[in-house]
């Protein structure tokens, strides 16, 4: 690999209420937002920053998020467009463990997953009011 390359991968969209999006200040109503992953090809390896959401999980436990994601927006398909497979990713970096940032981790069984120790600790102590935490 020569030089660093960065790719924005489209993982579909979700909907949340404006009050949640704007920290209970509104305006209320549906806000649709994109869910992206970022692939970084670097001399040290391929890094995937965040992995978006898992459509089946969202439909099972958070259908009010109204996910829109077709087969071309799944991470394996996004990587395939670049001539890559999930096993070609060396590192998955999760900014945090909200469902829309780590749901695609399941595709990367050979990659080393990186996160901050405090984020890992916080993910085990989800507050009941948090609609963002993964519940498994």
Walk me through what this model shows.
Residues 129-136 have low confidence and may be disordered. Helices cover 21% and strands 27% of the residues. The radius of gyration is 16 Å and the shape is globular. The protein has a 5-stranded mixed beta sheet. It has 136 residues and is α/β, with parallel strands linked by helices. The protein is built from 5 helices and 5 strands; from the N terminus they run E-H-E-E-H-H-E-H-E-H. The protein has helices at residues 18-21, 55-61, 75-80, 99-102, 117-123, and strands spanning 5-17, 30-42, 45-49, 91-93, 112-114.
Task: Give the tags.
136 residues; alpha/beta; 5-stranded mixed sheet; 21% helix; 27% strand; globular; disordered C terminus
**Strand residue content:** 25-35%
Give the uncertain stretches in residue-range form. 129-136
Would you tell me the structural class of the helices and strands?
alpha/beta
The overall pLDDT average reads 89
Strand order of the largest sheet: 1-2-3-4-5
Counting DSSP E segments of at least 2 residues, the number of strands comes to: 5
What is the 3D shape?
Answer: globular
Q: Percentage of helical residues?
A: 10-25%
Largest sheet, if any? 5 strands, mixed
Order of helices and strands: EHEEHHEHEH
- What is the CA-based Rg, rounded? 16 Å
Number of helices: 5
**Amino-to-carboxy terminus distance:** 38 Å
Please sum up the structure shown.
This protein has five helices and five strands; from the N terminus they run βαββααβαβα. It has helices spanning 18-21, 55-61, 75-80, 99-102, 117-123; strands at 5-17, 30-42, 45-49, 91-93, 112-114. Strands 1-2-3-4-5 form a five-stranded mixed β-sheet.
């Amino acid at each position: 690999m020569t030089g660093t390359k960065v790719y924005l991968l489209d993982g579909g969209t979700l909907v949340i209420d404006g009050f949640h999006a704007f920290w209970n200040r509104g305006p209320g109503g549906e806000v649709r937002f994109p869910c992206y992953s970022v692939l970084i090809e670097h001399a040290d390896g391929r890094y995937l920053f965040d992995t978006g959401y898992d459509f089946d999980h969202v439909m099972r436990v958070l259908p009010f998020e109204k996910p829109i994601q077709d087969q071309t927006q799944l991470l394996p398909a996004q990587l395939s467009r670049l001539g890559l497979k999930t096993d070609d990713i060396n590192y998955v970096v999760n900014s945090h463990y909200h469902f829309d940032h780590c749901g695609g981790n399941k595709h990367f069984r050979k990659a080393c997953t990186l996160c901050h120790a405090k984020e890992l600790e916080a993910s085990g102590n989800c507050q009941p009011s948090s609609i963002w935490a993964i519940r498994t």
